[in-house]
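Teaching note: in complex prediction, the entire set of molecules is handled at once rather than each chain in isolation. The prompt given to students was simply: 'Predict the structure of this complex.' The entities are:
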Amino acid sequence: MFYTYLLKSKKNGKLYTGSTNDLRKRLKQHNDGLSNFTKKYIPYEIIYYEACLNEQDARSREKYLKTGMGKRYLKNRLSRFLSLTGLIFASVILFSGHYAYAVLTCSIATVCNSPDTTVFRISGTSNAHSELQSQSNYSKYVCCSGVSGIGNSCAGTSVTVARLSSTTNAHIEENTQSNYANNACLSISSGTVSVGYQSGSCAGYEATVASISGITNAHVGDSSAYTTKICASATATVTPSGGGGGGGGGGTTPIEVITTGITFTGRAYPLSKVTILKDGQIAITTIAGPDASFSVTLSNLSTGSYTFSVYGEDNVGNRSTLFTFPAYITYGSNTQIGGIFLAPTINVDKTEVKKGDNIAIFGQTVPSSDVTISVHSDQEYINKIKSDTNGAYLYNFDTVPLEFGNHDTKSKATLLNEITSFGKTISFLVGDKNVLKQEKSCSSRGDLNGDCKVNLVDFSIMAFWYKKPSPPAKVDLNSDAKVNLIDFSILAYNWTG
Amino acid sequence: MNKIKNKIIILSVAFLLLFFASSASASQINLIPGSNLMKVGEIFQIDVTLDTEDETINAIEGTIVFPTDILELNDIRDGNSIINFWVEKTQDSSSGQFNFSGIVPGGYIGKNGYIASLIFKTKKEGIGNVEIINAKALLNNEESSESKLSTDKISFEVSGQADYEISKISKVKDEESPESFIPAVASDPNIFDRKYFLVFSAVDKISGIDNYKVLESKLGISWLSFSRWQKSKSPYLLKDQQLQSYIFIKASDKNGNERIEKISPQNPLVWYKNTSIIIYIVLLLLLIIFLFFIAKHFLKKLKFKLK
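The expected output is the structure of the full assembly:
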């Protein structure tokens, strides 16, 4: 019998997928530190395994479980277990894929022994001077580890982490500068190393090496001392071990070259148009499948921080709210944003409803999902309904309990363990007559030029009137006789790109 | 061997959704200095960041005030800013003020949202403050309600002379052109009396956009044009209101890398009505005639020699 298995480190919770013909023996080998890939985080426990009669089948299964699909399968398969150990933890570790066992870590240490490597030395954890790793005046080491073959050579596969003004008692500068000649490097015997400088955090990188007070002529400190962080990632390229049945699953396949980009996957509405905005401008659109799922890739991006937004448009042209998130894109990497679940669209059939009559609240979401409809003013009324096979939902709300006056409604959807946030809020009036809602072809606050979009053109028109006297009523969105930040904020809220 | 890092980071949106949990809190615009103790002649960087404290902010504005007798504002960097569209980004060096205002469509939520960096050079010894005044942050909701915002004030001291003089601020290493962008032509009764205007906005993630230039030309190749590039800002009122010209928009980053986008004319001229093409045809004919006479002259000489 051959097994494909999933290990979990008791030390730090990292997950590892492998295959073997002797599960007990292989677990013992892992826990005895006989595997280079797993010995750093022993001891391990097996949290999941599958058995089959063919060795190749087991290896194929192992490869599959290391793919994005495989990880999603494991996430669903072990959802109860993972929810007990923490969903977020599980998501991050599962998705970190091949690198779960080879993640670069850096810290300020007083000892930095081989195979860990000293990038440079510093005089303290803040407001400090630095010296090259070959010097011995300072007691604090900027020490990196976690990836096999890591070193501080400035030759071969290496990257300059920072430049020093002299060999010791030195100021420091980013590798983008060219005032200093003494390089502090991070190298790897076989693989790739990347270094960048980010403000605030090293999101997108594996490790924060240190922080610096400026781009040049700077002091240095530990990861929290300054806003500008020196960030690094290092990945060893390892060919498959190809060992016997007992040792399978140790390596990774060589890394394939891909372009710099980002892939979005998630759920919108069946056959709906899904739009991706990059920094507020339409980057790409796609059509969701009949099951409301979509996947779209944006490539040829530069390295840097981006703000991405996603919105969907349902079968009658109602738009969802923007789902916006920041992401840091690194050169040569493909960032994947998964699990996007757009909030349902919503609309009502009347702008005014006679107290005691029904008002129809409807929209679209993922097929067969649970839709929660909130009607709220002073008191909130929660109603639940299931969407049909086209994702459409309709709820006739009896307005008997509502007071006369304005009321709002909004909705959210739940499917399995996933839940959306509440979507757009729609207002209606409870009065003494029924007034059917006249649907305009498009109606969005902030659409100044009436092209059914809220985008750069509208922004430019508004910017033209910024702080100018007597702006046109159409541009002055909050009707306070001036175009100021509030009008721009309304524009940003209704933005479509 | 593969030289390019192939790293796949999958962010769980379940993780992201956690950020959307609302709580009553206040956002903050922070000033983060590289150092608080400098020498005369040193470069001094202050990062301006936004901590939204679980709120979703889609618009911010403020004024950063600095002492002009001690500090000289040399550069403003916004290459990686969370602000997607700047409404205002002006510096008044004489009064020591930097005014900023901009929006993030859909809103930003996070702890260290990078807005911009101010690069100062210290001019003389002294003690001073840099602070944010008149700041405002608006929430990404239908009412655009105001966030309870707190702002920062930092103190610093300039003492002693730097060991060496930094003659100029070194540029950020940037060899990439600004990203491709999509300009648009529009007209609206609310602006320029319904005349056609051009809008554009480019992004450069490394050094940031420095300037834009626009060229309107009857020819589709910019370097053949008889017109000149003009430094411009969006919205730009088009000279050719007949929309018969090609429009070129050049975005340059702070390192001089350029990206040129082109808009074809909506009402292109037929070639015989296009004066630019006519001029080039005439020039070409003149050149051909000139070459003909040169060749004729040369052949005459050759025949004469052969005789």
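Point out the following to students. Chain A touches chain B through 106 residues (CB under 8 Å). The first strand of chain A starts at residue 2 and ends at 9.
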